[in-house]
Amino acid sequence: MQTRRKAKIVATLGPASDDPAKIRALVEAGVDVFRLNFSHGTHAEHRKRFAAIRKAEKDAGRWIGTMADLQGPKLRVGKFKGGSVELQAGKSFRLDLSRREGDRTRAPLPHREVFAALKPKMDLLLDDGQIRLRVRKCGPDFADTRVITGGSLSDHKGVNVPNVKLPISSLTTKDRQDLRAALEMGVDWIALSFVQRPDDLRKARKLIGDKAAILTKLEKPAAIDSLDEIVKLSDAVMVARGDLGVELPPEDVPSIQRQIIRVCRRRGKPVVVATQMLLSMVGSPTPTRAEASDVANAVYEGADAVMLSTETAAGTYPVESVKMMDRIIARVERDSHYQAIIDAERATPEATAADAITAAARQVAQTISAAAIVTYTTSGSTTLRAARERPDVPILCLTTQKKTARRLVLAWGVHGALSKEVKDFNDMVDKAQRVAREEGIARPGEQIIVTAGMPFGTPGKTNILRITTVKKR
Q1: How many CB atoms lie within 10 A of CB 144?
Q2: Using the 8-state DSSP alphabet, how is residue 466 labeled?
Q3: Domain count, the chain
Q4: N or C: which end of the chain has fewer CB within 10 A?
Q5: pLDDT value at position 420?
Q6: In the listed set 129, 160, 191, which residue is the last one of a domain according to the structure?
Q7: What residues act catalytically?
Q8: Buried b vs exposed e over 184-194: b needs ≥16 C-beta within 10 Å?
Q9: Has residue 368 been placed in a domain?
Q10: Which DSSP symbol is given to 153?
Q11: Could you please report the per-residue DSSP string of 191-211?
């Protein structure tokens, strides 16, 4: 059976955590979904990690999700003579398309699209926002700037253009190669980087089809302008706070995080909060109290999952980081006020039979103190509707599809189990009782709520609810 936590844990694999024994230890510590970061490593290395995940999944006897995170377009300056320069505030600095190595007066920026989007008085951020330049004059192949915030600038540091939708595709040639490799492996989720507009998702969907679900990383403030449509077109969303924080003032990030979570909950789409959650545990066996509060706040806000990046990929304490995150989530969910906080943000059901049945399932489960809500689904839509309600009981997802069970690991409160095709609704109820008993979710004599859509196999047609008592074997 899956963990009893409702909020899930995503962990990134890397040099500190990619051997089979360490992956098994991470699963035992509580990881629900593993992230393969295609910004680093070879396809062979990722295939090896993927195989180890599937082996650990089999050994653990519970579903483990996999996510391939594509790098996306990375805007970077070129090389400098000597490897780095020191920029001083108030001085002039030029960026251009020349391939000559840079110095303290200029640097190569091999991205024609950036120059096409620039205008005087715009700011450019370099090295994760450590250096700020203001455009004074620009053209199709250059930008003359003034250094607002100086510092050391070295080879290949990143460049951000705040508040601008750049004419760049979210999928580079490298991304397309990585995407093919990830889909051949059989990953459950594809995480798209640098999404700026809804059309980025439409193009990606044509390439991916139904081979994997799409998780949109919200790391560009420009994407927030189309937030509702982007969430609608996504299967899940990630709040990539580190990248958002480069172009946004730090004080804006918490409110943007809440806004994204609220929209995702209303749309019934899983939402992951990521970046620097337990960063101090890269080198320390314990987090700061502020980091523990940060994880807890994301859980209180109703996030489906929280993610570890460097902590598990390259840190000294990867397993301890997962255990700590597991403990923080479990403590929040034991809080007597937790469910009331979650309920306060519940979205109003839409005027559909599916929403009416799902909302009723939560209310009935609470009224009769049911042990669980059991959904029968092919695509996962029935189960996601149940998760959208954030009930105070587990959601057991019965499905005939392994890929559906693995994808739904990311969703709040969902525990997946494989089931054979059902003959009719009575057969489904019998299977729900048996699986709930075998998975340890309900004991004989306890009641469960069963929801499904008729005819079976029709996505989004939840139209049946039944209360049933779990029988003895």
Answers
A1: 17
A2: E
A3: 3
A4: C
A5: 86
A6: 160
A7: 35, 76, 217, 275
A8: ebebbbbbbbb
A9: yes
A10: E
A11: EEPS--SHHHHHHHHHHHTTS
Give the number of other Cβ atoms within 10 Å of residue 293's Cβ: 13
**Residues 369 and 242 placed together within one structural domain of the fold:** no
Predicted confidence at residue 457, as pLDDT, reads 62
SS3 (DSSP) at 327 = helix
Token pair listed for 392: 């105070």
Q: What is the pLDDT at residue 458? A: 65
Residue 423's pLDDT is 80
Residue 137 belongs to domain with CATH number: 2.40.33.10
CB of 375 within 8 A of CB of 451?
yes
Considering the domain architecture, whether residues 143 and 259 belong to the same structural domain is answered as: no
Handedness of CA 316, 321, 322, 323 (dihedral sign): positive
Same domain assignment for residues 329 and 380: no
Q: What are the residue ranges in the chain where pLDDT is below 50?
A: 1
CA distance 400 to 435: 13
Domain assignment of residue 2, yes or no: no
Do residues 273 and 257 lie in contact, with contact meaning Cβ atoms separated by under 8 Å?
A: yes
Within a domain: 344: no
Name, in order, each residue with C-beta under 8 angstroms of 307's C-beta and a sequence gap of 6 or more: 9, 10, 11, 12, 35, 238, 272, 273, 274, 275, 277
C-alpha–C-alpha distance, residues 143 and 104, integer Å: 15
User: What is the pLDDT at residue 1?
Assistant: 47
